[in-house]
Structures are given as C-alpha cells and as structure tokens.
C-alpha cells in the first residue's frame, strides 16, 4: 500500500488552521497538505494548487477534505475525484476530531476506509453539552459524566 496523501482545502484559513491544530496535537505528519481558498483565488488557481500536489505523488491514493459540500473547493476537488486516473476520495464537512483520526490512520487503512472513518468520526464527535448533561444527570448531578459514563 502506498502512503496516502491528505489534502485539506476550504474557504479562508480553514485548511491551514486545521493543519496547524493537527500539528499542535499530533506533531508534523508527512503527506498532509493545506490549501486555503482565499478572496483572491479562483477555481483555476485552486485547481492548479491541487494538481501540483497530485503530480508529486502519481502512485499514491489521495484523500481530499473540504469544508463544505457545494463550495468551490468541493467542486474543484470533485473534478479530480471523478476524472483522475489515481484513487481519490473526497469528503466534505469534517471536523478536527475526524481529521486527527484519519491523519493518524492514513498509512494503516485503505483510502476508502479512511473516507468512511472521516464521516463516521465527524458524526460521532458532535455533542450538545446541555443535552448530554441532562441525559446523564442523576441524584448526584453530573457525577456520571465525571466518571466518563
């Protein structure tokens, strides 16, 4: 299995912000790239930046993470996912929990499994604290929550 490449892209500083957070928590991990889509960018400039990374890794599977479905970064990445000869998976809407999980598993799991893991982890890591707290309250208040139950 070739080392998987992960490209994070999105509006504003989404990509570099997430990569910075990943590095703070997990350290520098090879094969993870951040491409911000800023005001002065176009779909053409974004396409060029993604292609530049893809060309560096002609035999590696690539997982592209985008901020939102339907935005320009997603549309540009989708063009690569449907037209390129290499194995490219595209996932949108991931949070930091999911990115950490897939970055740490990127060389252990197949690309399709990484994409599924990204979606599953994002869904499982979203929490409304108030609802969570109400659900686990008992006579001791939040004791169950403190115990990790």
Question: How would you concisely characterize the structure shown here?
Answer:
This protein has 149 residues and is an alpha/beta fold.
Number of strands: 4
| Cα-to-Cα separation, first versus last residue | 38 Å
| Helix run count | 7
Describe the main β-sheet briefly: 4 strands, parallel
Helix content: 40-55%
| Poorly predicted spans | none
SS-based class:
alpha/beta
Taken in chain order, the helices and strands follow as: EHEHEHEHHHH
Oligomer: single chain
* Overall geometric form: globular
Q: Return Rg in Å.
A: 18 Å
Strand order of the largest sheet: 2-1-3-4
Strand fraction? 15-25%
Layout of secondary structure:
Elements: E1 5-11, H1 14-26, E2 32-37, H2 43-56, E3 62-66, H3 72-83, E4 88-92, H4 96-105, H5 111-124, H6 129-136, H7 143-146
Parallel strand pairs: 1-2, 1-3, 3-4
Helix pairs in contact: 1-4, 2-3, 4-5
């Amino acid at each position: 299995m070739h080392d998987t490449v992960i490209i994070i892209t999105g509006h504003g500083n989404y990509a570099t912000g997430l990569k910075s957070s990943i590095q703070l928590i997990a350290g520098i991990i090879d094969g993870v790239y951040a491409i911000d889509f800023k005001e002065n960018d176009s779909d053409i400039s974004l396409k060029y930046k993604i292609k530049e990374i893809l060309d560096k890794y002609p035999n590696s599977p690539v997982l592209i993470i985008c901020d939102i479905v339907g935005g320009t970064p997603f549309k540009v990445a989708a063009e690569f996912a449907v037209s390129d000869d290499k194995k490219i998976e595209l996932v949108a809407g991931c949070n930091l929990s999911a990115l950490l999980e897939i970055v740490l598993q990127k060389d252990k799991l197949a690309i399709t499994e990484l994409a599924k893991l990204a979606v599953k982890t994002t869904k499982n890591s979203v929490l409304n604290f108030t609802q969570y707290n109400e659900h686990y309250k008992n006579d001791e208040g939040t004791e169950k929550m403190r115990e990790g139950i």
